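Two proteins follow. First one:
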Amino acid sequence: MAGLYRVTLVGNLGKDAVRRVTPNGTTVVNFTMATTQMIRTRDGRREEHTDWHKIAYFGKPADAVADYLKKGKQVYVEGRPQPPEKYTDRDGNERTSIEIRADVLVLLGGGGGGRQGGFERDESAGQVTPSEPPADTPPEDDIPF
């Protein structure tokens, strides 16, 4: 039986995405995103905990959304984690980083402006198809505040 190793994230970009092109002509967009959760401490206080994620998004869909991936923009990402990379930070501490190779990216309404919608890649069929935002999500123009 095959296993499943996928990640689903909703968060905000930490800075504008960087677009580059590989030697074979494939567009790659790299960005970092933050996910935040509220944690209740042992003494009953609520604390906010933020994790940072490195994301790589490839192909025609990456080229299409690269200009919309600005700092603060809220995105939904599905993908597969790559093997961990070890590095030493500025303070000399050993750290581990995991890059997520995104298969699905949807621009959400929060932060940095832009439009809703995104793209997903069907690697088995070699196709790129636009994805629709969830049906219960109103367009940004219809939000009353």
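Second one, unrelated to the first:
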Amino acid sequence: MTVIEHVYDIPSDDELAQLVGAATPHFALQIRDRVAKLAAALPEDHPRRPALLAHIAHLEDLAFRGEAGAGAPQDLPPLPSLVVPAEPG
């Protein structure tokens, strides 16, 4: 059996939280596709399906809207702007 043919189990809640929680806007759609494949393999009435669909919606939002920084206060004072001296002449 090749890696592509292997059927992976649905990840636990902790495993799924690690996968989705580490997502950045750049990789959100790739992770969404992985989660969507897992959701598609489940029957419509499977108890894990709503959580997977919620993660898919979160990842799509992250991919298209990005993420806002926490806005933490800076611990260093801002540097002055660079001023290029005029050339003599």
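SUMMARY FIELD: Helices lie at 13-21, 28-40, 49-65. DSSP finds three helices and no strands in the chain.
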